[in-house]
């Protein structure tokens, strides 16, 4: 059984921290390179005290160089900001290394849309067509053949999985979809900033980035593909005084207002019956972020309100695991020929 | 300057605790009676350690009797469950005491609607027509003449204040309104129950009571009156791991999709210019629950999204102060001939 | 590879929840029986939504009977209150089943001490001598030969591991030890009670149970054995507004006030060099509960204050994993002939 | 009734925020100047959304100049870092303005001790003798005659009030005192920094700054004065995942081990009977930070443990109000000839 050698560029953030946790328990993939300009020279276990004594803790943090990465890694995870990842990905691919990019740089198939929402030039347009949008439930086959994965955003992962069955089976109207999304604070990243200090987040609640959060075009791209027509959503993120987790409450109008919860629930259950990570909850049950904490699960709850003709879909994920590093690892598994769930299958949620 | 004597029935909950806090600082109203069957015989300062040494702490908790209440009180606050309050209110009114009822017993003008949503018989239908729905910005004149106040629910207070300007000025379509409301956990009350234990709420997020939360008909009643037509809303509450505060994110469709944020903002500012407790935030700013903590303020933020033709209104209040006890006190002020803001005017938010 | 069949009595609490999580990822032990009088008849996955889809979720909750347990289980975990466990343990042992008891019933070697601190009669005194106090770093050999494990208390686990090296190597005076311990709220259990409601714990801090917390005699028993003389400690627990984790700050006086941090640190490192779960932090570093969350680690930080001649030892554990269910599983591994770390080795902390 | 004009230098921190809250409700003192280099030019209500619509919100933030301050203010509060305050204080005093300094610059009577612990030169040694240590329960008379107040540190306020009665009445041994102090995160200030990000503080617990926190010499100075002899304490701060509040658990040894809780409690009650802000809790009760939130109260709980001959004193305060801005305001009241409790008397804790 061959061991796959993995590199991680951008270790100082929460996604990097989470990937280090997951790789420490992976039976066939090993962290051999960890890059950060600011922390270069430290042992990883020194920087991440939780990792001490576990596989990966002895890696010495280095400054990223594509050639060196190509020398020692089979796959590299890029946990760096949008705009920074695209050049690194190019160089790594050129050197023959597989890449999983956590940023938005390769998520939007249309470079112009990227440039409009991310306010920057896309310097690697030629790579866009070969990047695979790494939501395993939809694109596992493509990911298995890919060299470059655009790892989905955290919010889009919850929204696309939440709406998938409803759009595929034309249960809902495609206009007027509203997403009210709530995320734990790790989603805001790990950089020093007053608005995410403990005392600015604890015991308070707020929306942010309205209107026009950058995950909007990514959500619309994938939902439009599912619906077979262009659609627009109103996407509205909120910040929750908790560490991890996303709950997306998705408001839709039923195509047939007479449709019952029984009918909707049956279709969702059938759609997801072979997807162990998507759990359609029993009728009447609503998801909670704690029940997916630290795992790859996406829990889906369904509400049919006959008074208003609405189907409300609630989808809960762990933003760091399913919404970032766990999903990245699933994609790397696929790219490297391993079963998608390797190293992720015994990950019982830390409720 | 006459001192008004106040009684409080139902002291063990968070609303009772908050009213005791507010009365301790009120210059003209004094707590003289506090009732609870379970805690009868204790000094109030013993039961509420935070109150020790402040006005009201020496009141000895007693079992409620209407005749005794009439003997010693000018006004009685009923912080007891729906269904329990109606008889107490009847007896107190009959004995000549003014009543502020925290429960839903007198909020719905139509007894049949009450009985449908609250699953119980309304035994005091004759009182419904004399009860005033105590939202001071709308019903101050009526409250000043009333003997019985139906103190508004916490969620409805935020939603009605949030939508008031938009409905009065016909800025929005009346169908398709969706309210995604988030409340601190004090809204769930202070009774021993597993779902509100610390470990069941901290570091998690969930919706609850979908569809069909009991505040729905109260919201619809008041919004329909404002709109001049029957309307229905989809009302969806969520539980936030924080103590206090409600943020209601209210999704509407603009009547005129070309309307700008400047125009909407101007109308909101004009509408509320003489209401010191309603603060329309500057364009681009969004409200946070901490900035209203412990106060009567309702902070309103406005978002116009031309991509989807939507006006999104965000309204933040303190669920215990504006959403319960502070508003009750404002109503008692009005009933007793005091300026509405007495004892509430120097209440700077504890940010 | 034989699969070991495990039963769990008392599933409704946090320790039961944690054991279910850990067993779901154990390669050689399987949950086959789960008992609770109150929840009897439900599938375990229905009661614990986080477990759905994982091994163990299909077990149907039943009412405990020793004979039935003996029929289907190799080992039974008793997560029931002190006083209740002793009879169950007797019956199970009599029927030939191995027992790991989470309660205090078999922790104190002296029945009189038990009866003094736990205010009840000990009906199974004969079993006390065969019970092994299950702290694997000290009693692994005894545990491997045992049929009955007294699983250590959460606080004692942190204090005994924290002080072990100092007492064994006579670095400190044995009188005047003060333990200021802080625990997450899961330590208070999962029963409906006002003092552990979210709003009674969040954004506040308090001590509880002073003086005379029941973990005191357990701590003193084991420390006295280590010191080779009777000693008394002042043990003082506090409640932290967090879910999981214990930090014990242990104040001692150096036997030789001239001893340096270097010397103390060396001795601690040597003592624990072969114990992968005990991590002595680098000099100057202090432990945090998040870095052990969900794991078996005990992180130890050392402070020498020459101004006051004190050695302060800080020990952090996860109260539910190391302090209860993970340690129970380690003990079950030992009793069943598995390596102690089976099913626990890939448990990277969820930082 | 003359209105006193107050200035505040350093508005961006939590102490500045708290002082603005308190001044908004003060009947005789008005904020007329607010200084911050970084935020200069903004209205205060724009910078502090919670203040909008309240007294003080219309002040435009300016850059500090002593001459301008002298022109418009009777008293100036300096909420700036240690080392920065001393020159400002000098210039203000020279210009005839009263000063309340929140920093440590004038707390230590001995300049050499300051320079040792604060690693900087004291440029205003001549002012040390005229500065009054502003703990009103001890130094109210001196404060009333002072022009310069050294406002006490948050931790020292809790420790000195906690130990006052025990030292004055020689109830305890003066050696071996250990303080295990726990503070909410606002105590760490409001500057952008990774260690106080929400995700680095929530759901975790840690000690910090051991050994040698800078509040140690301040505590020792005042306790030595009370005891009439030099004494040393072991002072050990911890960070709590909450916003506000300090609980200091103070471990002492009884001078007479036979002394009872009744005796100790009587002496504490007598000592504090005329101090409305110090509340000695009933025997058996322990303080909680929430019961003093937003107020000037110091709640004291007493534990006598005859097994170990110890008196443990627990003292709870609000670190921002009693531990900083409320106490500063009390001192300003005294300096300006107002009753000490003006503007603070109706401050019922926001439990």
Notes on the protein architecture:
The structure is a homotetramer. The first copy, chain A, is about 30% helix and about 20% strand. With about 350 residues, chain A is an alpha/beta fold. Chain A folds into two domains: about 130 residues, NAD(P)-binding Rossmann-like Domain (Rossmann fold, 3-Layer(aba) Sandwich), CATH 3.40.50; about 160 residues, Dihydrodipicolinate Reductase, domain 2 (2-Layer Sandwich), CATH 3.30.360.10. In chain A, the strands form two sheets. Chain A has a seven-stranded mixed beta sheet with strand order 8-9-7-10-13-12-11. A six-stranded parallel beta sheet of chain A has the order 2-1-3-4-6-5, with helices on both faces. The first copy, chain A, starts with a strand and ends in a 16-residue tail after the last helix. The mean pLDDT of chain A is about 95.
Give the CATH superfamily of the largest domain in chain A: Dihydrodipicolinate Reductase, domain 2
Please, how many helices of chain A?
A: 12
Helix content of chain A: 25-40%
The largest pleated sheet of chain A is described as: 7 strands, mixed
Shape of chain A: globular
**Most extensive interface, chain pair and sizes:** C-D, 45 and 46 residues
Side by side, the strands of the main sheet of chain A go 8-9-7-10-13-12-11
What is the residue-averaged pLDDT of chain A?
A: 97
Per DSSP, what share of the residues of chain A sits in E-state strands of 2 or more residues? 15-25%
Contiguous runs where pLDDT drops below 50 for at least 5 residues of chain A:
none
Give the helix/strand class of chain A: alpha/beta
Please tally the β strands of chain A and state the result.
13
Spell the H/E element sequence of chain A: EHEHHEHEHHEHEHEHEHEEHEEEH
């Amino acid at each position: 059984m061959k061991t796959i050698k993995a590199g991680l560029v951008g270790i100082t953030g929460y996604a990097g921290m989470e990937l280090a946790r997951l790789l420490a328990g992976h039976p066939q993939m090993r962290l051999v390179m960890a890059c950060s300009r600011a922390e270069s020279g430290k042992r990883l276990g020194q920087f991440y005290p939780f990792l001490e004594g576990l596989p990966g803790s002895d890696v010495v943090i280095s400054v990223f160089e594509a050639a060196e990465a190509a020398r020692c890694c089979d796959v590299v995870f890029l946990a760096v900001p949008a705009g920074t990842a695209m050049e690194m990905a190019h160089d790594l691919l050129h050197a023959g290394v597989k890449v999983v990019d956590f940023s938005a740089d390769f998520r939007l198939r249309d470079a112009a849309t990227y440039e409009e929402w991310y306010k920057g030039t896309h310097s690697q347009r030629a790579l866009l067509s070969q990047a695979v949008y790494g939501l395993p439930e939809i694109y596992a086959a493509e990911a298995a053949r890919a060299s470059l994965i655009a790892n989905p955003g955290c919010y889009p992962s919850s929204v696309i999985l939440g709406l998938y069955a409803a759009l595929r089976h034309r249960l809902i109207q495609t206009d007027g979809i509203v997403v009210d999304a709530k995320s734990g604070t790790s989603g805001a990243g790990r950089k020093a900033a007053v608005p995410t200090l403990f005392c600015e987040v604890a015991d308070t609640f707020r929306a942010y980035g309205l209107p026009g959060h950058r995950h909007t075009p990514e959500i619309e791209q994938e939902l439009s593909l599912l619906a077979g027509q262009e659609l627009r959503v109103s996407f509205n993120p909120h910040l929750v005084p908790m560490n991890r987790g996303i709950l997306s409450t998705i408001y839709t109008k039923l195509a047939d207002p007479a449709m019952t919860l029984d009918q909707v629930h049956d279709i969702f259950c059938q759609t997801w019956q072979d997807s162990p990570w998507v759990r359609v909850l029993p009728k009447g049950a609503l998801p909670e972020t704690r029940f997916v904490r630290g795992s790859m699960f996406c829990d889906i709850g369904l509400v049919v309100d006959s008074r208003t003709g609405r189907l409300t879909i609630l989808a809960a994920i762990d933003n760091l695991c399913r919404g970032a590093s766990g999903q990245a690892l699933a994609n790397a598994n696929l790219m490297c020929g391993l079963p998608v769930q390797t190293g992720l299958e015994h990950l019982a949620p830390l409720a």
